[in-house]
Automatic annotation (TrEMBL):
GO terms for biological process: negative regulation of DNA-templated transcription; response to antibiotic. Residues 35-54 bind DNA. This is Regulatory TetR family protein. Residues 12-72 form the HTH tetR-type domain. Pfam families: TetR_C_1 (PF02909), TetR_N (PF00440). It comes from the Bacteria. Keywords: DNA-binding, Repressor, Transcription, Transcription regulation. The keyword Zinc-finger does not apply. Signal peptide: none annotated. GO terms for molecular function: DNA-binding transcription factor activity; transcription cis-regulatory region binding.
């Protein structure tokens, strides 16, 4: 039997394989430990071989962000603009919770990839087709993204994951307060946070509805002259 018999053949190295492996590592370990050397080790190749496909660490990050943007829903033109952008926002939040390392990178790239730019163009196209002027579309895009990214940053920084953990953390905080202290926080906790069915994640949809309703008023006012 030859030396190579029974040995699994590795898939050919490619830019896409490198980027997907980098996303996998970042999802598992975060961004800080990700280096070209650790990525090469994960792929079972020499670090220098990566540079035949990805020019630099910055190019690697550009490509990783592009893969994340490709997972976002791209809103369609000509339909219900608010429904399309609501779907895009919920889709993007779910994607970012799967890839938490990406939140701070999404709009940081000076050499964005094609999927990133296609996503941005789709959002703007949806707004423009709905009658938003160019300046109002720019304002709308900015405030929608501020809500999306700001909420996800807050969500990821909370000291709990999910309603069950939220109840436990809240109860421990309340248990350490002197009697009669902080009445408004106690009221919020007991009458809202500790009630059955509470989920902090639901606040995302509530805030998004407020943003979309406000944008519709601005759009209608602009259309009415």
């Amino acid at each position: 039997m030859g030396n190579g018999a029974g040995r699994a053949k590795r898939p050919a190295l490619s830019g896409e394989r490198i980027l997907r492996a980098a996303v996998e590592l970042a999802d598992r370990d975060g961004l800080a430990p990700l280096t070209m050397r650790s990525l090469a080790r994960h792929l079972g190749v020499e670090a220098m071989s990566l540079y035949h496909h990805v020019a630099s660490k910055d190019a690697l990050l550009d490509g990783m962000v592009d893969l994340v943007f490709a997972e976002f829903h791209h809103p369609r033109r000509g339909g219900d603009w608010a429904a399309e952008l609501r779907l895009r926002a919920h889709s993007a939040r779910a994607v970012l919770l799967r890839h938490p390392w990406a939140v701070g990178l999404m709009n940081s790239r000076s050499a964005p990839g094609l999927e990133t730019l296609r996503h941005h163009d789709a959002v703007l196209g949806c707004l423009r087709a709905a009658g938003f002027s160019v300046p109002l579309a720019a304002h709308a895009f900015a405030v929608l993204d501020a809500h999306l990214y700001g909420f996800v940053v807050q969500e990821l920084s909370l000291p709990f994951r999910g309603p069950d953990e939220a109840s436990g953390v809240t109860a421990r905080i309340l248990g350490g307060l002197p009697p009669g202290a902080l009445p408004h926080l106690v009221e919020l906790a007991t009458q809202h946070v500790l009630q059955p069915g509470y989920d902090f994640g639901d606040e995302f949809g509530y805030g998004l509805d407020l943003v979309l309703e406000g944008l519709e008023r601005r759009r209608a006012a602009e259309a009415g002259g």
